[in-house]
Amino acid sequence: MKLELRGITKRFGALVANNNISLTVEPGEIHALLGENGAGKSTLMNVLYGLYIAEEGEILLDEVVQKFAGPGDAMNAGIGMVHQHFMLVPVFTVAENVVLGHEQTTFGGRLDLSAARAKVREISDRFGFDIDPDALIEDLPVGVQQRVEIIKALSQDAKVLVFDEPTAVLTPQETDELMIIMRQLAESGTSIVFITHKLREVRAVADRITVIRLGTVVGEASPTATNAELASLMVGRAVELTVHKNAPELRGTALSVKNLTVIDARNQIVVNNVSFDVQAGEVLAIAGVQGNGQTELTEALIGLQHHVTGSIELDGKPLRGYSVRHILDSGVGFVPEDRTEDGLIADFSIAENLMLDRSSGAPFVKAGNLQLGFRARFAADKIHEFDIRSQGSDMEAGRLSGGNQQKVVLARELSRDLRLFVAAQPTRGLDVGSIEFVHTRIIETRDSGIPVIVVSTELDEVVALADRIAVMYRGEIVGIVPGTTPRATLGLMMAGEHAPATEAAL
Amino acid sequence: MSTLTESNVPVPASAPIVKPTAQIRSWKIPITFGGFSVLSLILFVLFGRGQRGELSTFRLSEARDLIQLPEVALPTFATGVFVAIVLVLLAAASAWLVYRHRKIPIVLTILFALLFLVGFLAWAASGSTIPVPGLLIGTVTLSAPLIFGALGGVMSERAGVVNVAIEAQLLAGAFSSAVVASATGNPYLGLLAAMVAGALVSMVLAAFALKYLVDQVIVGVVLNVLVIGLTSFLYSQVLAPSANLNSPDVFPRLNIPLLSEIPIIGPVLFRQTIIVYVMYVAVAVVYFGLFRTKWGLRVRAVGEHPQAADTVGINVNRTRFVAVTLGGVISGFGGAYFTLGAVGAFNKEMTNGMGFIALAAVIFGQWHPIKATLAALLFGFATNLQNVLGIIGSPVPSEFMLMLPYVVTIFAVAGFVGRSRAPAADGKPYIK
Predict the structure, then answer these.
(1) Are residues B122 and B138 located together in one domain of the fold?
(2) Looking at the structure, do residues B122 and B162 belong to the same domain, yes or no?
(3) For B308, nearest residue in chain A (alpha carbons)
(4) Cα distance from B207 to chain A (closest Cα, Å)?
(5) Do A131 and B13 touch (CB under 8 A)?
(6) Pick from A194, A163, A180: nearest CA to A32
(7) What is the domain count for chain B?
(8) Could you count the other beta carbons within 10 Å of the beta carbon of residue B68?
(9) Residue B423 lies in a domain
(10) What CATH number does the domain located at A3-235 have?
(11) In a mutagenesis test of the A interface, which of B294, B316, B430 is the best target, namely the one with the most A β-carbons within 10 Å?
């Protein structure tokens, strides 16, 4: 089925998310939609899927103008979507999720799940997925959940499939397999829209590439274009794709973690007997697919987990079992992975957010009184130093862009006298400019002699920053390898295969 | 691309993730067991000997039963000592299990509770007779409004709307059923009016929660206060002066032939009013509806992940509205129990907090219609035990016994029987 978007414009108040976007996807074509976070890709696809109604423009399928009042209409017209955040009910089975919204019933309104199971098996056989229709979604790995999403779309005879940032949650191997599936689908005549900001993937799989920036189409590119060309088209200027850094100046072991085990509220061992050291002056990156214990590991370091055994020592002093306050006072800086939930209070001003963890005493508080003058000067300094684009230190943090919010978090954490810096997913959802800035600050922190731990699910980021890389899989550290380890090796380790012999050398 | 296929995933694609688990030592249960063991030692052993009599009698049949079972007479003190010793042993066993990082089986908890109950009954009834059928019949009868309320709550919360207004729905049902049944002289019309009233209360909750996105707990609390105020006002201004508006016919007990003659079970389950018989049907229908039909799948989907439901073309707010309204119909029907099933007239605030106990049953019953029903039965039992002990003149002060259902509720809700997991989107309005 041929898909055509003509002059789509979508506004949210004063913000124009999509400005006169036109796009054609031929049958059997994989059309990549490339753009930065916040460029308007997802908005466009939500318009296509009937979740948003566009102010202007029209959607055509096989030259016929469509009017979608909701996702149901779009689905009936043959559009399927694999969402970035899976639209699957975790406590339902695969079959229940696949039939939801299109249930067949037998006598007395009974749900006919056997038909649904047969459908799942049929599609899953066609693509070699090997999926049990009766498995609960919450028990399945994310890569498999994504296949359920694909089955769900195909079970509705989707002729146009939209993949919204599908690789964000996958291991490199799973990503490769997804590419193969996309090819298979395209060959069977499905039109595919592939939304991403990852250049490598676009070049691997796309037939055509449309680049959008700030809600506008800025050009088409062919898959043969170089990374640098695509990046500059996407960002609008030449981009440094690598982080400049010198060899680390190691100054002895600062953080020492031994046999750390974390048990969560559901009695699951989420971090299993993990040991590692971080030297002052180096970046240890913790790589791994989301949900393999990285979150809990960083939370254990900062004292946010309750059932922790093993030892954590910073400069020879134990940290495990102490309060968060004590750990912060010991000089641990922490950038949480969810900046809007855990990093900032959205309704507080920038200045208030900058002193969140400093309210216990001078210079911010004297005799129980906030030192507003000092705070204002401090905030002004930091806004200048970290280039936080805002309307002044009284602006609510929630109104800043993602990149500027993250700068506020960084400014707060780095302005203390640090002995250890832990950054979890420091650039998730940020634009390229902000990513460059964050990476530079992290390397500067390292060079000032502070041990740094960076947790990231993005292999690009891990490779760019790390002096050493610890790969986590199902709560364990699969191996600790040098920062120069090839991506293919890291990818295998992220899927649980043990590291080559290099590990022993460290 | 062919090279890529070789690097296939090392695990079978659909293998569920089996996360290793570890038992965190929680001393909650051993400590509680220990507390009750000590209590039983004090009550049954220290104060167990011969204040009122040597024997505790349990009567298993009613006078009019066809099949008469003999009375069981237990020696009060010996039973107490035996129970206390076993309870101490069970508490020690639970402590040992926790010490060895093992899970305490649920059977142990149930056994402990039952034994304590037997010991307590034997102690409380020393020198007198406990009518077991009467105790259980009353349990089912008293549980009826709780079960209806809990079913209404389950329905609403499974769809993602927190229903704190069960009390209001019960009370509105009680009031309108009394008035309509009195005015028309037809108690069945009263039942219908009760359902309508419950539905109306629910619709207000749904409208504020879904359309105006007001905090659902606050709307629920306000509705409770509103309905209490409204019915009390109407009672004193309208019903009190003209008594003919507040004298509905009470449903008689209907004995189901044959079934009602089964020893113990017969009188308990099959010598009840039509309201209780409807309750059996309601439990089955709600269970079937939620877990076996297309409609139920959709209701649970909007309660767990409304966005997922929306993206497959399900109208989230309409589905929620219908489920909440139906929940109100069920709760409202339960309200009719107070007037048409028991008292025969409406009184101010006659639901007396039963709606909140029903809410506790929803949580204790893990948002599952059958488990919630069992929870409601437990609470009903606690309430009726207090009545029965009051009648036979047990040594426990009745004020203390009045606390019992609430104490049971607190222990239940505090998580002694497994952790409750609410529907993921419960209480969260869906905004696109």
Answers:
(1) no
(2) no
(3) A87
(4) 22
(5) yes
(6) A194
(7) 2
(8) 12
(9) no
(10) 3.40.50.300
(11) B294
For residue B182, give Cα distances in angstroms to B175, B177, B178, B187, B189: 11, 8, 6, 8, 10
Terminus-to-terminus CA distance in chain B, angstroms? 39
- B178 part of a folded domain: yes
- 8 Å CB contact between A327 and A303: yes
Q: How many residues does chain B have?
A: 432
Indicate if the alpha-carbon torsion angle A447, A448, A449, A455 is positive or negative: negative
Q: Tens digits of per-residue pLDDT, B123-163?
A: 888 888 888 888 999 999 999 999 999 999 999 999 999 99
Distances (CA, A) of B184 to B175, B187, B335: 14, 8, 18
| Mean pLDDT, rounded, of chain A | 89
Of B7, B292, B311, the CB nearest to A71: B311
How far apart (Å, rounded) are the C-alpha atoms in residues A325 and B298? Answer: 46
B351 with B373, same domain: the answer is: yes
Which top CATH class is A240-331+417-506? alpha beta
Cβ neighbours for B188, distance < 8 A, ≥ 6 positions apart = none
Residue in the structure block whose two tokens are 């508006």: B245
Closest to B189 (Cα-Cα) out of B178, B200, B199? B178
H or E, element range at B283? helix B274-292
Asked whether the beta carbons of B344 and B159 are under 8 A apart, the reply is no
In a domain, residue B188? The reply is yes
pLDDT tens-digit readout, B211-251? 999 999 999 999 999 999 999 999 999 998 888 888 888 89
pTM for this structure?
Answer: 0.83
In angstroms, the separation between the Cα of residue B312 and the nearest Cα of chain A is: 5
Q: Are strands A332-335 and A420-424 parallel, antiparallel or unpaired?
A: parallel
- How many CB pairs below 8 A link A and B? 146
Question: What is the spatial distance between Cα B281 and Cα A265, in angstroms, rounded to a whole number?
Answer: 38
Q: Note whether B120 and B155 are same-domain residues.
A: no
Compute how many other C-beta atoms are within 10 angstroms of the C-beta atom of residue B8. 12
Q: Kindly compute the dihedral angle of the four CA atoms of residues A324, A326, A328, A331, in this order, to the nearest 10 degrees.
A: -150
List, for residues A231-264, the tens digit of each pLDDT value.
888 888 877 767 888 888 888 999 999 999 999 8
Domain of residue B319: give its range: 134-416
Are B247 and B226 in a shared domain? Answer: yes
pLDDT at A51: 86
Question: Residue A348 has which token pair?
Answer: 């507080």
Residue contact A101–B314, C-beta within 8 A: yes
Among B residues 280-319, those touching chain A with beta carbons less than 8 Å apart: 292-298, 300-301, 304-305, 307-315
Test the B interface: residue of A267, A306, A472, A492 with most B CBs within 10 Å: A267
Residues B231 and B348 in one domain: yes
Q: Cβ B313–A97 below 8 Å, yes or no?
A: no
B123 shares a domain with B139: no
Better-scored residue on pLDDT, B220 or A505: B220
CATH classification of the domain holding B167:
1.10.3470
ipTM over 0.90: no
Residue ranges of chain A that CATH labels 3.40.50.300: 3-235, 240-331+417-506
B5 in a domain, yes or no? no
**Chain A, 62-101: which have a CB under 8 Å from a chain B CB?**
70-73, 75-76, 81, 83, 86-92, 96-97, 99-101
**Shortest Cα distance from B304 to chain A (angstroms)?**
6
One domain for residues B399 and B303:
yes
